[in-house]
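INPUT
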Amino acid sequence: MTIRQIGIAGVMFSFLVAGLGFAQQPTRLLRPPPPGGLPVIPFMEGWYANDDGSVTVSFGYHNRNEDDIIVPIGEGNRIEPLLLDGMQPEIYYSGRHTGVFGVTVPESMLEDSIWWYLKTGDLEELSVPGGLGSEAYELDRRARPQGSVQPYIWFSDDDDDRGSGPEGILASDVITVSLNESVTIEVQTEDPSVRDPSNPLFAKPLDTRVIWYKHQGPGDVSFSEHHSTPFDTGPTRSTRGMIPVADSRVIVPQGKGPARVNAIFSEPGEYMIRARLDNWASSDSDGLDQCCWSNAYQRVRVID
Amino acid sequence: MKRINKSKYPRDVVAYFLLLISGFAFQSTAAFAVDDINDDRQVTYAGDVAAIINENCVVCHREGGIGPMELTSYENVRPWAPLIQLRVANREMPPYAYDHDIGNQNLQGDWRLSQDDIDTVVAWVEQGSLMGNPEEMPPAPQLKNVDAWNFADQLGEPDIVLASVPIDVPANGNDLWDKHFIDSGISEDRCIKALQVKPRGDAKSVVHHANTYFAEIAEDGSVDRKPVTEYAMGKWGEIVPEGVCRTAFADSMIQWDIHMYPGGLGGTAPNAVIEDNVVELGIWLHPPEYKASISQDLASYQLDQGDLFIPPHGYAMTQGFHSFDHPVRIDSFQPHGHLRMNAASLEIFYPETGKTELVSMISNWSATWHHSHLFEQDTAPLLPTGAVLVTKQWYDNTSDNPNNPDPRQWVGWGQRTADEMSHSWIAISHLTEELYQELAYERSQREQSNLPSGD
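OUTPUT
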């Protein structure tokens, strides 16, 4: 390693973060946080002003534990007013996950107090406000400086009903499948971003990526690749070391085409699968910069 | 839910001013102890204060300047006298936050007023802010164009000026990051003498940062890049010490990485669309024959980004460490954070002695003035191999922080202005063991010669 590399890589070899007034940690840690036992932190990522006067709020979370955390929707995982409840995840993967779901607040409710409450195990309940707030958290759907926009994602049966952004699209139908039976879930995608081909980074159209997640449901979901859109096994890295990349990811060549996955469920019940489509290969698109990706949600009913 | 304006920041500044002015009525005359001013001597604007204002304030507080009010005459200074007194007495103005009573005080480009000047301004207001004898009025300052290069007086115009590709910045919405490439035009490796990044016109209030890199692009699209310089809102520039080479690499592209905040921050935030936003990089070069035995680089020293959390209505403090496997000299220190960060420090821990030295303390840090504190070459911290840099940064996510856009939110690491960061840009001169010993010996000799005789 050269001297310059040492300097640039100059990441502190140790660190300490003390959250003073961190109510759920009455002790003041003098060491890096432990790998477990920490509450999942809910984040209000920002809000979009919609043409009809409503506001869409993007929510995400950070699970600092090494293990995924399950928090069923209910008293420990609710959005108030309950009219807006229901799209939040029940599984919290380790790491930072931005814009996992969106809540659209109608204009008539903009004066209401809107909060997402999340209680991890026996730890103190954490909460974060939603709704129309500080303009410092205002998001928009305009093109980024190098042309990136939120890509389109939709289900094959709904070609005319495309989703984009964190709130994305919820499939109109519910897939019913038997326990331990594999089901194929499919989304169509298109990235309409217009980029300057004279920029050496954009000499050819960029690929996009779909990552499949369990979003809600009582049991485990095992994803396996569909032969028509195999999983990406190439080198990848998490976004700035914070947003991990799941194995169940499909590259969409040149940003247009389908992504499919096979899923098997371990328990009967009502599930929701999330497909996140991103164009983070572009230099102006990044999960922590709050653009550009889109979610699609598929309900699955698993029966005995 | 009540809508909170993002431009709360500038409006807060105005509100803060009004608050301060109204609050001033409750300040007793005992609030400002002016030990050095003889109560019998009348302090006047013409005889005492105008020179201080002209020298230290007018550069920004002028027509077209970034200061929210003009301070170019007695008539326009007088209404602001109570506020000026308070801000000066609290060392909030001029805006160079750096604790004056601890750590290394030998800085280049230090905007802070001397205690004598502070006492003079305070006494002037205490005594009624009188005009005095107009014949004692100093001549009006010769002001440079507001868009002039900061180092033009001492170094002339930059040898190279590289402009970013123009972009329109909307009046509101999500932060923007414009990353594009331009040709550097540099055909041979040269040593850099100084650097300044300068947003043009209104761009000053919307450009949060503008970093530049010497970049090489591989066929697979990956970019290998080395920092040219860093700019964040309010930064003056960088001067590379004499005898040191910071290399401008030949045949590289320049990658701009410009973070813009639609609507803007600070007292002159336009809250409007800014068309053709352009940022310029000025590079002053040494002559081609310039040789130096010390190489310098600028790098960001940062925490693991996933480890910064600030609870709603709460506080946080971060601490990070770094050491080198060779001796170094710290040439500059510039902590970086956003709206919740309010203090920072740099320390050096010497494992061999167990002692810790506080180099810099900034207890009133603000995101609108990212100063790179340039240490005077003769007293810049010298670190033996293995000494440890310790950086600390403090955050206030309560409503007591006037910059805080929303104290109800959890705040984590992120590039957006509403998110937070914890790192410092530090310019390091890399030394050989022999050179370190030589510099350390020179310093000890200098210190010996400066001691009073008999010591």
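end of record. The longest helix of chain A spans residues 3-8.
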